[in-house]
Amino acid sequence: MVDIPISAPVAALRRVRAVRYVEPLREGGSLPGLVEADDLGTYVVKFSGAGQGPKTLVAEIVVGELGRRLGVRVPDLVFADLDEAIARREPDPEIQALLLASVGTNLGMDFLPRALGYDGRSRPADVVDAARVLWLDALTVNVDRSWRNPNLLTWHGELWAIDHGAALLFQHTWPGAEAFAVRPYPIDDHVLGHAAGHLAAVDAELAPLVTRELLEQILAIVPDAWLPEAPGTVSVAQVRELYVDHLAARAAASASWLPAVAA
Ligand SMILES: Nc1ncnc2c1ncn2[C@@H]1O[C@H](COP(=O)(O)OP(=O)(O)OP(=O)(O)O)[C@@H](O)[C@H]1O
Ligand SMILES: [Mg+2]
Q1: What parts of the chain have a pLDDT lower than 70?
Q2: Is residue 122 packed enough to be buried (19+ CB in 10 Å), middle (13-18) or exposed (0-12)?
Q3: pLDDT digits over 59-79, tens only?
Q4: Ligand nearest to the CA of 29
Q5: Using CA positions, which residue lies closest to atom 19 of ligand 1?
Q6: Which of 114, 170, 171, 262 is the most buried (most CB within 10 A)?
Q7: What is the residue extent of each domain of the chain?
């Protein structure tokens, strides 16, 4: 069963300083990199200067921290500060350009050493774990958990969720954002679709946990500079409120989007 404290208090992310850029994780589309930090930790860093832009980092924080409170294993997130000197030391011109564009705050994820990519061929040990990931993906409309691109790791025999940058569709299309609350979530291509039979039970457990208060605490973690502009807003506080509104409305409407499962 899940050994994660559900609804653990939301704390600000720790801040570390990058001391060495180790290597790129080439399979990642946004060219995330492995970085050593001044706390002796090793992190997978998603760079603020990457082509996808900071909205993907907003989604990583919001979905990752939400998942953590819903019993989904997500590697610890940190803010990783990058100095220009480290960027200048990088010999590969493509990576140097990315690092130079990312001097300042970036998002780090605790690196899980020797984790295996979950490929969907072997089922995870705990189907309730899988159903929780599936429910989180349905809530946040995460399209990046397909058979082709599962974005799940197996580490010490347990399932860990990574890469939530593609979720929160509404932040890319604000004008149609109201439809987000009831948008159905197709699971045909979802790598954990086999757990769909447990969704109703997981929905009853998790939907009430997604309160406005929790969402406000999580949005407070997101740096002002990463929040996008949104129509009709004049302050970052209003932008944060929009995220809270859309996610709270969707959590309250799970009957509309919960994938239908044949009995
Ligand atoms: N915390 C972690 N611990 C160990 N390995 C990781 C971790 N995070 C990512 N990886 C590895 O790095 C790869 C790329 O990471 P991720 O999928 O987050 O990057 P991305 O650029 O968003 O990728 P995508 O191409 O799916 O958009 C993963 O497939 C995984 O193999
Ligand atoms: Mg990925």
Answers
A1: 1-9, 28, 123-125, 261-263
A2: exposed
A3: 999 999 999 999 999 999 999
A4: 1
A5: 28
A6: 170
A7: 16-110, 116-257
